[in-house]
Design a protein that fits this description.
Length: 318
């Protein structure tokens, strides 16, 4: 049997968390012993630790700058600042926290989720009411099911729902305050780049953005995009193309490069970022969800760009 040569995601996440603690200087004697025990328990633990130290070195300077000139906005940032109360030390803590978030930028979202899909193209789940969901890679759902509600929050990603018909109460999905309601139908919800696309394969779906005064109703072969809490126009769509991801393909027609790359990033441990005006360039084509690096190279070539891996796990398209 061939020995593993790379740390697992779990080992990297644990290493990043230890880095955050040690950088902030908040380890007790017992925690220091626990860290040393973990570090020496497996050679790949030490390799994961070394990777995090390299990553921290890249992040330390810009993170310190953020700590000095930007007030903390998130609950995590406020917690980091409250640990020691000093801006100079907080810069290092933020750098270490960024190391955690680069390896798993969805760490906090996952804490809220009931279901989180892995790297596989499809994760099939049966909900408490018997409805079925096929989740795309790196997607997260929070569930609230009882006699009074069948409610799903799409925290991240994409999912195809096959809702059990004739069941009460009505089935609803919340995406950042935007609401999708159904009784029994088959439809897809994709949240990416601060917008949500709903495609109906069968039945009728009602959609209301957080800022909408009225509800839009979609039926077979129709889609709508909700952005900034506002619903756009209902447009015709070919469901078999929109749902091609269920067969391992991403099919796009004049889609922004940034959106396409963001979708592909779901399916990879690597993180891909698009710089500058390239983000808004539009491309069409079919891209494999099983060969992400090949798809990224194809996109870069199509828009006359380059793909550069600057630090571990991060590729910049420019």
């Amino acid at each position: 049997m061939t020995a593993k040569t790379q740390p697992t995601d779990e080992q990297r996440e644990i290493a990043a968390l230890w880095l955050a603690k040690r950088t902030g200087g908040v380890l007790s004697v017992d925690e220091e012993l626990e860290f040393e025990t973990w570090l020496n328990a497996h050679r790949l633990n030490r390799l994961a630790w070394d990777e995090m130290r390299v990553l921290w070195a890249h992040l330390e300077q810009p993170a310190t700058h953020v700590a000095q000139f930007s007030p903390p906005r998130s609950g995590l940032a406020r917690h980091v600042f409250s640990l020691r109360g000093g801006y100079a030390l907080s810069g290092s803590l933020i750098a270490a926290s960024l190391a955690v978030l680069v390896i798993n930028p969805y760490f906090l979202e996952n804490l809220q989720a009931d279901i989180v899909s892995g790297a596989q193209i499809i994760t099939s789940v049966t909900l408490p009411d018997g409805s079925h969901v096929q989740m795309a890679a790196n997607s997260a759902l929070a569930l609230q099911f009882d006699e009074h509600q069948r409610h799903v929050r799409l925290l991240r990603g994409e999912a195809f729902f096959n809702v059990t018909p004739g069941s009460k109460p009505d089935f609803s999905i919340d995406i950042n305050g935007d609401t999708v309601r159904v009784i029994g139908t088959r439809f897809n919800v994709d949240n990416i780049a601060d917008k949500t696309t709903i495609v109906v394969e069968e039945g009728i779906v009602s959609v209301q953005g957080a800022q909408d005064g009225a509800t839009e109703h979609l039926s077979h072969g129709e889609q709508i995009i909700v952005s900034g809490g506002k619903s756009g126009e209902i447009t015709p769509v070919e469901p078999e193309l929109a749902l091609a991801w269920l067969s391992g393909r991403l099919v796009v027609d004049q889609a922004p490069v940034a959106d396409v790359v963001a979708t592909l990033t779901r399916h990879s441990r690597e993180k891909f970022y698009v710089r500058g005006a390239l983000r808004g360039k539009r491309i069409s084509g079919t891209f494999s969800l099983q060969d992400i690096e090949g798809s990224i190279e194809t996109i870069a070539a199509a828009v006359d760009a380059k793909a550069l891996r600057q630090i571990p796990f991060v590729t910049i398209i420019y």
